[in-house]
Amino acid sequence: MFDGFEKFLVIGIIGVLIVGPQRLPTYAAKLAEFVKAVRRFADTAKERMRDEMGPEFDDIEWQKLDPRQYDPRRIIRDALFDSGGSVAAVETAQVTASKVRATAPVVPLAVGEAAPFDNEAT
User: Fold this and answer.
1) DSSP line for 38-97
2) The whole model's pTM is what?
């Protein structure tokens, strides 16, 4: 509904109405001090991390460690290519996986029938 600037404008108007024009500068100054303190804390933490981890801290590729980048198909494909595999090996693995899915029959349960259960399973 709103973009960045409009949100701040609406929050500012609500703040003026709730806090009042007399106390608003005081609260704005406190907010600015809080933001500066958080920024100093983050910079200090970053510098301390660099000091403790050493120069190899900057060499780490942080984008590769992002969990949103996780894709099992890509990981398997990369593993097959890294181990000397070829495109044919990847295609063979994909065909085999699709055959396994195709051979497992899906049998719907009858009305009132209980789902299969294995007592020995943990």
Assistant:
1) HHHHHHHHHHHHHHHH-GGGTTS-GGGG-GGG--HHHHHHHHHHHTT--HHHHHHHHHHH
2) 0.39
